Amino acid sequence: MSKVFQMLADLQAKIVAEGKEAQQVYDEFTAWCQDRSKNVELEIKAGQGEVADLSATIEKQSANILGSSTKIEELSGSISTDEAALKAATAMRASDKATFAAEEKETSEVIGTLERAVAVLNREALKGGASMLQLKGAEDIAQAMDAMVRASMLTSADSSRLTALVQNIQGDSDSQASSSSTRAVSVVETLENLLDKAAMQLETARKTEATNAQHYAMLKQSLEFEIRAGQKDMDTTRKALATSEEAKATAQGDLSVSKADHQEDTNTLESLHQDCMTGAEDFQAETKSRAEELSALSQAKKVLGQAAPAAAQTYGAALDQQASFFAARSACGSVKARGSSLHSRPCTQGQICGARTARLSHGFGDTLW
What we know:
The chain is mainly α and 369 residues long. The protein folds into two domains: 2-58 and 251-364; 72-238, no CATH class. The protein is built from ten helices and no strands. Helix 1 (2-127) runs antiparallel to helix 6 and helix 1 (2-127) packs parallel to helix 7.
């Protein structure tokens, strides 16, 4: 009988010791689940922040790209407009310059002709020759010019130019008064008047040409400055566009990676939670099984105590103390209280559980009964 009591005591002590070890392993398991869950949740939170930042970067760069593209179009249109204006102004300047050159040449030739004619007439007037008598008898400027040609005082080309000039100035409305005017005013005076008008016309043309040239130079300088500034701004905007496109592409690539990492962390957290819950359930089942084993041992003790009251009383007290201690430890490790915070399993089920029924059968065999 004493051998049986000893076996019961040893087995009960072993179960209690294993319960303490299992409780320690479970406490470590619970702590690991909590730590691991916290770390994964922090990674998920960081991943969400990274996804938000990258999405904001992509949105910002998209806005920059749109703004740069719009600005490039506007600058391109402005540069084209300025280039067209400069081209048109240059063509007009060339045309005006050519017109002035022709007018200047013609007026200079007329002035030269008039100067020569006046000089010849003044010289002949001093001589008082027959040619001056012919001029006095001329009724109009055309006859006077013709007389001067016959007298070899002017060339036929100079005569034709002067005649055309006089007729152009006088106009058709003054044709009737030309004869009397010519007779009243000497040919020299007429030519001198024409010379003064031609000189004034040439001076006016030259001033106009100088003013037009100055205006063109200022316009050209302004347009060229605008074109250079636009092209410089265009280059800067194109560089900004390229930078924004590169930044957007990089952010899009990083966003894909971050979303994949975030999804992986989310899946890890779900799996962690499931594993920790399973581990908690396994520990609860093993704790219950261990309590049932201890209950069976207590029942065996009662049976033996009835057969041998004195021996049973001595060993029963020790057994009751150990059983009470284990029950208290089991109560402290309530699975329901811990289940909501478990997310992983660092150990296998075999580290927490054991085959209690087999151990009881092996311990007692047929001796008890």
